[in-house]
Design goal:
about 110 residues; two-stranded antiparallel sheet; about 70% helix
């Protein structure tokens, strides 16, 4: 059975989340039509997609078994390095993805690493 303060706390948290969600989702609707970000913010926002995808992918590549693994036993890291070299040479995103997946799959099928 929840105590009354637990229920009040839960309601406040839900209301707070509602406010945060509303403000962040409607920010561009609530600002004046002539609103323009300063140049520094505009330059910084260009890196947001890259930072977001890096934050999602980096732990998958660097973490193996719950620990950071930057040794040659890390199949994902080896595939990432090979794919990065292919991208630097050929500048083809599709080829980079295919080579990275191919290297990772071959290493996995051969039982390479830990």
């Amino acid at each position: 059975m929840m105590a009354i303060w637990d229920q009040v706390w839960l309601i406040l948290v839900v209301l707070g989340l509602c406010v945060v969600t509303f403000v962040t989702r409607s920010f561009f609707l609530l600002t004046p039509s002539s609103f323009v970000f300063p140049p520094l913010i505009q330059r910084a926002l260009r890196f947001a997609p890259t930072a977001a995808i890096t934050a999602v992918i980096a732990p998958e590549i660097l973490m193996q078994g719950g620990h950071v693994d930057v040794t040659w036993h890390n199949k994902a890291l080896i595939a990432c390095i090979v794919a990065s070299v292919v991208f630097l040479i050929r500048q083809s995103l599709l080829l980079t993805i295919c080579v990275g997946m191919l290297v990772f799959t071959v290493l996995r099928l051969l039982g390479f690493g830990g």
